[in-house]
Design goal:
Blueprint lengths: L1 E3 L3 H13 L14 E2 L2 H9 L3 H4 L12 H12 L4 H6 L3 H4 L9
Parallel strand pairs: 1-2
């Protein structure tokens, strides 16, 4: 699911679709990980940066995970064997304190 907003309706739709296509019925699998409709993805594109580098950590006070955490969750789900490598990843930007405000 892509561009999911933070509403009960969006969560309900995601859950309903996952149940409709449970166990890959009809050749469709609905992933549990989602990409939220976050402004960081648009800002990252405008800045010419990958979203995981633009927003390596969740901003304080926000409910949805950081762009980096969303992308890592999707990568783990698509490639379970890569989980240790994905978990060990620390972006250079995150180590420098992130670029959320400095990049634009």
């Amino acid at each position: 699911m892509n561009r999911l907003d933070e509403t009960a309706d969006a969560r309900g739709i995601h859950q309903t679709l996952a149940e409709m296509f449970a166990a890959g019925e009809q050749g469709v699998t609905v992933m549990q990980s989602t990409i939220r409709a976050g402004v960081a993805f648009r800002q990252a594109a405008s800045a010419g940066l990958p979203a995981h580098q633009f927003e390596p950590r969740k901003p304080a006070g926000r409910k949805s995970p950081s762009a980096a955490d969303q992308i890592k969750a999707m990568a783990r789900e698509l490639n379970p064997d890569w989980q240790p490598l994905i978990d060990a990843m620390v972006s250079t930007t995150a180590m420098q304190g992130g670029c959320h405000d400095e990049c634009h």
